[in-house]
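As a warm-up, study this chain.
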Amino acid sequence: MPYRTAFLDLTYPDDSARPCALQFRIAFTETPERLGIIHLRHVNPDHQSPLKSSIVRDHLLNRILDLYMRGVAVKFIRLVVEDGETLALFAIEVDIHDYIARGNPYDATHVTTGRGRFSERVAIRSESVIAGQARVHTIYAKPMPVPKDIADALR
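Now compare it with the structure written out below.
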């Protein structure tokens, strides 16, 4: 049986800084490459849903990563949002500017762009992105169906 915590209540601000609340838990898959799943469950229709607001979703995600999953490689973490009958997976991306500003390791290559100008191409290794050491976001992520192994871990 996969590991899962009990649901905990969590308060958060909506897009206009009004107080809201939802429930969340953390679960692990039983696959050979064990994944940690952050499961957000929106329970009050009067509160702004993380399914519809990337601002809310990212605030909650970064807070949970910092408090509950600090030190885990982000490549092993998945975000699932439940709102009513909808269960959706969101891709997690690193905030590259925050990652670099915090002194995390990266490779930079100078590229000539023309007219004597240069730009810098930055590359980071996925194993270098650690929860709690840089902000992450889901602003460009589209809700995706939840894969079977992750859905099984949440049952």
